[in-house]
Amino acid sequence: MSCESAPAAAQTERLLAWAAAWPQRTWAVEGAGGTGHLLAQLVSAGERVLDVQPKLGARVRLRAAGDVNKNDPDDARSVAVAALRSAGVREVRPDDHAAVLKIWSKRYRDLGRTRTQVVCRLHAVLGEVIPGGVPRAITTARAARVLKAIRPEGAVQGARCELAAAFLETCAASMPSCARPGRSSRSPLPRPGPA
């Protein structure tokens, strides 16, 4: 049953309705650590969910077909067989998954706050270096061009240019969302706000 395009709550309802014919059921999920919200909803609905390591499913596929190529029907079967026959399968607990989601949520929130602080500081320093300041919407590419074009007059302006370059480097190097491959360097940085 494919539910990839439906929202997670609707997916859970559809899966539970579909599985209602088997009252004593167990869900086997390959690599449950990365399956996100749907898995959390199944576990919180009281469903028994087993985490099958990907290598166990691959071993079953290799033994059954002589090949580890993946496709949906073979994957479902191999994960189910691995869940039934492997001793290394663990049951997913509600608190486990909620704790993992909370950890990653905090990480992304912290990254967003840090990025906003760096961008605001970059914008402020550029405003001190350029007469008349810089426009509110600035891109990483434009900030780099502006810095490259400035010829510092004196130690103070030189220090500000170095500081702006450091902020730009921090944004590009330590925060992948600033300079992610496939993302245009002309994507606007967030509007400055309180840092």
Query: How are the strands of the largest sheet arranged?
Result: 1-2-3
Note the run of SSEs as H and E.
HEHEHHEHHH
Name the helicity range. Answer: 55-70%
Tell me the radius of gyration.
25 Å
The end-to-end span amounts to 47 Å
User: Roughly what fraction of the amino acids lie in strands?
Assistant: 5-15%
Taking the sheet with the most strands, its summary is: 3 strands, mixed
Number of helices: 7
By DSSP, the count of extended strands is: 3
In round numbers, the mean pLDDT is 76
Write down the overall geometry: elongated
- Low-pLDDT stretches are 1-6, 179-187, 191-195
Helix/strand class: mainly alpha
Q: What count of domains describes the coordinates?
A: 2
Report on this model:
The chain has 195 residues and is mainly alpha-helical. It contains seven helices and three strands; from the N terminus they run αβαβααβααα. Strands 1-2-3 form a three-stranded mixed sheet, with helices on both faces. Strand 1 (27-30), helix 2 (37-44) and strand 2 (49-52) form a beta-alpha-beta unit. Helix 1 crosses helix 2, helix 2 runs antiparallel to helix 5 (94-129) and helix 6 (140-149) runs antiparallel to helix 7. It is elongated, with a radius of gyration of 25 Å.
List keywords for this structure.
disordered N terminus; disordered C terminus; mainly alpha; 195 residues
Quick overview:
The chain is built from seven helices and three strands; from the N terminus they run H-E-H-E-H-H-E-H-H-H. The protein is mainly α and 195 residues long.
